[in-house]
Amino acid sequence: MRIEKFPANTRGFVNHGWLQANYSFSFANFYDPNRTNFGALRVLNDDLIAPSMGFSTHPHQNMEIITIPLSGVLKHKDNTSNEWLYVHPNEVQVMSAGTGIYHSEMNGTTDTYLSLFQIWIIPNQEGISPRYNQKAFKAEDRKNKLQVLVSAIDDDNFDGLKVHQNAKLSRIDLDENKEFIYELSSEKNGIYVMNISGEISINDEIFSDRDAVGISETTSFKITANTTSELFFIEIPMTF
Predict the structure, then answer these.
(1) Do the beta carbons of residue 135 and residue 82 sit within 8 Å?
(2) What's residue 157's pLDDT?
(3) CB of 40 within 8 A of CB of 122?
(4) What are phi and psi of 142, to 5 degrees?
(5) Any binding-site annotation on 60?
(6) Residues of the chain with pLDDT > 90: what percent?
(7) Cβ of 164: how many Cβ atoms within 10 Å?
(8) 89 vs 72: CA distance, rounded Å
(9) pLDDT, average across residues 50-54
(10) 10: helix, coil or strand?
(11) Which domains does the chain have, with CATH numbers?
(12) Alpha-carbon distance 234 to 230, whole Å?
């Protein structure tokens, strides 16, 4: 098993006042040649956006973009519908940029900060028609068990959000002293584990709030929750 630790304090960071962003991988003005991607995972941004602020209309192309609000409300509009849509905590948004899409992302409130993860995954198909979808998930459904949020577009066993890549995004909330064994879908995959909050142990390594770890060259691994913890998994092909 190969383990690569990504401590929270080694991420790129920018403070624009209205935006405070932590970059797990090279993004914008943050560049680290050793952190350009993890397999087909290209971006994992941890953003805090001030009330009523956000990103004005901008383009994307040939990328699978997943946004997960952790607190606050995300307001989204793109040129597939030109309607403002609202995405709340425990909801997930998926956008396939494909041949090209324009969108805006804003904090949908006037008095509360918006905290979110945004993930970019390199697709296994280019030139597809742009599409948008979102779905709500119940927090109780990930209590000490895996809750799959997003799967591959051709995964007939999963009725939910899909991306054009052999990927699986999921969450779990573990009670203190609880153990969980993650089984990878394919031996060709790796997994990027973001410890949202709490303290966990993997292979005798300890991970605290916003620490992350990349795991590959294995079919399973065990997590022990030293405290009550929230985890986010991105399983992804290591070659693409």
Answers:
(1) no
(2) 85
(3) yes
(4) -120, 15
(5) yes
(6) 96
(7) 21
(8) 7
(9) 98
(10) helix
(11) 2-237 (2.60.120.10)
(12) 14
| Tally of residues, the chain | 240
Whether residue 105 is annotated as binding a ligand: the answer is: yes
CB-based burial label for 140 (10 Å; 0-12, 13-18, 19+): exposed
Cα 20 to its chain centre, rounded Å, is 17
How far is the C-alpha of 6 from the C-alpha of 97, rounded, in Å?
A: 28
Question: Does 103 appear as a known binding residue?
Answer: yes
Which residue in this structure is represented by tokens 């770890």?
Answer: 213
> What pLDDT band is residue 81 in, cutting at 50, 70 and 90?
confident
User: Is the pLDDT confidence value at 159 over 90?
Assistant: no
Sequential DSSP letters for 145-209? S-EEEEEETT-TT--SEEESSS-EEEEEEE-TT-EEEEE-S-TTEEEEEEEEES-EEETTEEE-T
State how far the Cα of 43 lies from the Cα of 36, in Å rounded to an integer.
8
d(CA 30, CA 204): 31
Q: Which amino acid is at 206?
A: I
pLDDT, mean over the chain: 97
What are residue 147's phi and psi, to 5 degrees? -115, 110
DSSP conformation class of 77: E
CA distances from 125 to 111, 159, 166, 220, 239 (A): 40, 21, 11, 28, 14
The span from the CA of 56 to the CA of 34, in Å, is 30
Instruction: Compute how many other C-beta atoms are within 10 angstroms of the C-beta atom of residue 189.
Output: 21
